[in-house]
Design brief:
Layout lengths: L25 H16 L4 E3 L9 E4 L9 E11 L3 E6 L8 E7 L2 E6 L5 E6 L2 H13 L4 H4 L2 E4 L1 H4 L2
Antiparallel strand pairs: 1-2, 2-3, 3-6, 4-5, 5-8, 6-7
Length: 160
Amino acid sequence: MKLPIKKYPDPVLRAKTQPVVFPLSAEIQKLTKDMIDTVRSADGIGLAAPQVGKSVKLVIINLEKSGIPIFALYNPRVVSKGFKKIELEEGCLSIPGVYGYVRRPKKVTIKAENHLGETVQITDEGWVARVAQHEIDHINGVLITDLIKKYTKGEELVKK
């Protein structure tokens, strides 16, 4: 089921999130499925639970167009960052019409749990790293408007 996406400045986007506990409850299993439906429907590459009004540590990475199957990460965290940083234009489903350059580490290692509660570790320096950092920011109450160094579109929508 497609869920409504919360829009800036909705306070849920800044709220403290709670860890997901295992085994997954029926509610979290349904939330995961609904978030997958939502990100696909929105043609997004990632979605975090706060963006659909839920303050839990759950993110979806959707890079199917790049040949990577869609997947969920529970309680994800960046555990190491490479020294090299890269600046790319980012947008956000919760801040439509706003784009700008965000500088992030190119390479990161992320630890999280999968749907079985098993610890997974991902080291990447491509799109998974980029999208995961953006979504992990969401579960920590950080938005691209906090990180954009130079707006490319829509600055007037967030700067009042």
